[in-house]
Structure formats: structure tokens, C-alpha cells
Amino acid sequence: LITGGVFNNTVSGSGTITGGTFNTPMTGSGTETDPYQISTADQLKLFRDKVNDAKTEEETKICAVLTSAIDLNNEPWTPIGNYTEGNQIYYEGTFDGGGHTISGLNVTGNFRYASLFGAVKGGTIKNLTVAGNVSHNYSSTGLDCHVGGIVGSALDAATIENCSNNCSVTGGSGDFIGGIAGSNINNARIIDCYNVGTITGTIKGTGGVTGLNMGTISNCYNVGTVKG
Known about the structure:
Number of helices: 1
Oligomer: single chain
Structural class: mainly beta
Order of helices and strands: EEEHEEEEEEEEEEEEEEEEEEE
Distance between the termini: 57 Å
Strand content: 35-45%
């Protein structure tokens, strides 16, 4: 009998939950052959926190697969792989969207890499659609910022494959802004992706697929409005 509080564990047998918050833990071990199974917003947040709280590079290589569509309900979102100057965290694993959509994304904080995924280094994001809003202006710091629908920046041979963006993406005067990725650099690849979201930026670097490309873009297209 659970009458209140937060319960993070497994339940067997019969029982009654009358209050509080109940979070079903992710199954899987986070490896490439046994990825975490994610089906709820709470599980996606837990996965994000595991990456962003990583103490070693290996901990950022955890893998996951979506087993259903997820609605983030427009709650403020911190990117997965939230790289900062003081805490250089990249996402380096494989995330398989399973053909599902993550909707209600709402990124409005001052992140250097703003998106569902922030900085993806050598990792893979595939089979995923994202819908919502990414709105960002971090340019007052003088840093180049990277703003996208799926990832902020794909770098160091990262792969973004079979993904689509239906987010409205807006960046500031010093930003690189794109529907799939703000930037695609250092041998990164964007393959079989498309954008239908509205992309708004400046002349510095704004595009339907990416705002800065120093990698490979293959079999991609944009039908969203691009303003810049």
C-alpha cells in the first residue's frame, strides 16, 4: 500500500496506489545489445540525467530505444549531452527512436548546444521525429552556439539518420541554426533526414537541415520555412 511520496522501484503482486508519484524504471542495461527501453517522459528524463551526470566518458555512451511516442508537455527541457565550459559532457551512445515521435519539446534555456540532444560526439541518433519549440539566444556571451531540432551539434563522426524535425527552431545573431542540427562538423553525417519546422536565424548560419556543415549530408530535404 503506497499512500504518498515518490516510489522508484518494482512492484509485484497486487496493491493500491492512492497518492504520490510512481515511476516505472527503465528496463535494459544501457548497452548496444541491451539498450534501455524508454516509454514515458519520466524515463526519458532519467536517461538524460544519467548522461548529464556522467563521471566518465564511458557513462555517456549508454544506449536506448523508444518503445512508444512520448509527450514532454512543453516542460522546460535540458538537452541530453549538456556541454558547458565547466562540464564538458557529450552524448556518445546510440539512441534509436524506433520510428516514434517525441512531442512537446520546449528548449528555452541559455544552452550552448540547444536541442533535444545537445552535443553528440561520435554517437548515433536514428529513427526519431521531434516536435515542439527550440528558442535560444546565448550570443551575448560571445560564444558560437548551436541550435537544432534533433541535435545542437553533431561532431566527430556522429551520425543522425532517418530523423525528422517538426520543431520551430529560433536562434540568436551569433548562433548556427538548423532543423536537424545546428552544426554538422568533423566528419559527422546527416543521412535520410528532413525538416518541416520553421527555422529562424541570421545570416551567420541558418538552414533547413543545418546551419553549418563541415561533414556529410546525404539524401536529405527541407520543406520548412527558413528565415534569416
